[in-house]
Amino acid sequence: MTEADLDLIATDRPIFDPMAFRLTEQEEELGARARCIGMSKFAQRASRFDAEASFPTENYRDMHEAGLLGICVPREDGGEGASFRAYMMTAAEIGRYCGATALTWNMHVCSCLWTGALTDDLDMPAIEREAHRRRRSMHYRRILEDGAIYSQPFSEGGAAAAGAAPFSTSATRVDGGFLISGKKIFASLSGHADYYGILCGEFRPGERPSRRDTLYIAVPARAEGVTVVGPWDPLGMRGTVSRTLIFEDVFVSEEEALMPRGVYYQAASRWPHMFMTLSPTYLGIAQAAYDFTVQYLRGEVPGLPPVKRRMYPTKQLGVAQMHLMLEQAKALWFQAITEAGPDPSREQIMRAWAAHYTVMENSNEICQLAIRTCGGQSMLKSLPLERFYRDSRCGSLMLPWTAEICLDRIGRESLYLPGETDD
Ligand SMILES: Cc1cc2nc3c(=O)[nH]c(=O)nc-3n(C[C@H](O)[C@H](O)[C@H](O)COP(=O)(O)OP(=O)(O)OC[C@H]3O[C@@H](n4cnc5c(N)ncnc54)[C@H](O)[C@@H]3O)c2cc1C
């Protein structure tokens, strides 16, 4: 997107003021690009994807054109080479305009971020790293040249997506690749992604499956044996189209591996902030709910009579509560994403859980307050608040860091030192 494009529309103010938060030039530019495309295109389409529970295909075409599909593809491979923090703030800006687009875009971007900058921080024998770099370049080329979309169906309905058990979707080595069998639930982008980046266990006869052997493999959506089943009619995040995927003896070439065996396990253990990437969508929704409320109480929502409601002390109190919760979430989240990296301290991991929890819970609470503060008309389907409210409800349900799991871990880590028991 050129500077002239950016000048064409007036953009909302950044969620994170570049001067105040001392953002890099790249972070500022990516944020501006996201706001521009979000305001001019995504905002007006969002209610249709929500009503139809249909996938935002047009938005993906626009993001490809704007270079955003390759945001975390390393520069040497032709992408934007955005850091973890730069991506997180850009994703929050997209979330302001269409939650379903931001959340599904996250699944796509992680296929690049985790295989790119994050994996570069991890240990790998030189020969394995060389093969990994060759393979990931193939995935990146598909994204940059063809606009290919990747998803991340990990959930199976058991304990695996929470990191508490090995995945039951199995990969068995055969000549030239793997045979994949299993089922993934809540598979966002099902029927719309070109590649499903699944986590599965390497099945070896006579051996017990182990989380250490987890494989991360891109299954071409059109491969024989892949089917999308079941309905999709949820409360919120309806445009994510998170149906069920079935894999029946699907042959996948070994070149489709997104990470070598064992590297996903290493990433999850050593780079835990990787799981925070589900949160920016919900920070963006919180900002959108706050912005709408201010506009509504000032009588400035386009298409509505210019009735002001800002003079009532109860309205001012409601907005003040929302403002506090938004600032709390922003400050904690910004600190956590700034210190993300390999081998964080115990305190840093606890801060990441606290930030993730705060964003997910505050987002829904801010939307709830927005509806109460704006009043009856604000829950009409013709206005976006009720969609923000429904979408924001989904954040704290998402594994592996649901609100309950974050609380559980923070509580335990606060009270027990590593290795300590009550025996
Ligand atoms: C809109 C949307 C889109 C999604 N998209 C994707 C996607 O693209 N890919 C994907 O892989 N998944 C996706 N998910 C699924 C999501 O990450 C979770 O897997 C899913 O919400 C879990 O639902 P469940 O009822 O099976 O959870 P369960 O595993 O049955 O857990 C129920 C609750 O129990 C608690 N719990 C579970 N395990 C533990 C534990 N070990 N310790 C303490 N408490 C625990 C948690 O609070 C959890 O919320 C999506 C979910 C939503 C809502």
UniProtKB/TrEMBL annotation:
<dbReference type="InterPro" id="IPR006091">
    <property type="entry name" value="Acyl-CoA_Oxase/DH_mid-dom"/>
</dbReference>
<feature type="domain" description="Acyl-CoA oxidase/dehydrogenase middle">
    <location>
        <begin position="165"/>
        <end position="250"/>
    </location>
</feature>
<comment type="similarity">
    <text>Belongs to the DszC flavin monooxygenase family.</text>
</comment>
<keyword id="KW-0560">Oxidoreductase</keyword>
<dbReference type="Pfam" id="PF08028">
    <property type="entry name" value="Acyl-CoA_dh_2"/>
</dbReference>
<dbReference type="GO" id="GO:0004497">
    <property type="term" value="F:monooxygenase activity"/>
</dbReference>
<dbReference type="InterPro" id="IPR013786">
    <property type="entry name" value="AcylCoA_DH/ox_N"/>
</dbReference>
<dbReference type="Pfam" id="PF02770">
    <property type="entry name" value="Acyl-CoA_dh_M"/>
</dbReference>
<comment type="pathway">
    <text>Sulfur metabolism; dibenzothiophene degradation.</text>
</comment>
<dbReference type="GO" id="GO:0050660">
    <property type="term" value="F:flavin adenine dinucleotide binding"/>
</dbReference>
<keyword id="KW-0503">Monooxygenase</keyword>
<dbReference type="Pfam" id="PF02771">
    <property type="entry name" value="Acyl-CoA_dh_N"/>
</dbReference>
<dbReference type="InterPro" id="IPR036250">
    <property type="entry name" value="AcylCo_DH-like_C"/>
</dbReference>
<protein>
    <recommendedName>
        <fullName>Dibenzothiophene monooxygenase</fullName>
        <ecNumber>1.14.14.21</ecNumber>
    </recommendedName>
</protein>
<keyword id="KW-0547">Nucleotide-binding</keyword>
<dbReference type="InterPro" id="IPR046373">
    <property type="entry name" value="Acyl-CoA_Oxase/DH_mid-dom_sf"/>
</dbReference>
<dbReference type="InterPro" id="IPR037069">
    <property type="entry name" value="AcylCoA_DH/ox_N_sf"/>
</dbReference>
<keyword id="KW-0288">FMN</keyword>
<feature type="domain" description="Acyl-CoA dehydrogenase C-terminal">
    <location>
        <begin position="277"/>
        <end position="393"/>
    </location>
</feature>
<dbReference type="InterPro" id="IPR009100">
    <property type="entry name" value="AcylCoA_DH/oxidase_NM_dom_sf"/>
</dbReference>
<feature type="domain" description="Acyl-CoA dehydrogenase/oxidase N-terminal">
    <location>
        <begin position="24"/>
        <end position="112"/>
    </location>
</feature>
<keyword id="KW-0285">Flavoprotein</keyword>
<dbReference type="InterPro" id="IPR013107">
    <property type="entry name" value="Acyl-CoA_DH_C"/>
</dbReference>
<dbReference type="GO" id="GO:0003995">
    <property type="term" value="F:acyl-CoA dehydrogenase activity"/>
</dbReference>
<dbReference type="GO" id="GO:0005737">
    <property type="term" value="C:cytoplasm"/>
</dbReference>
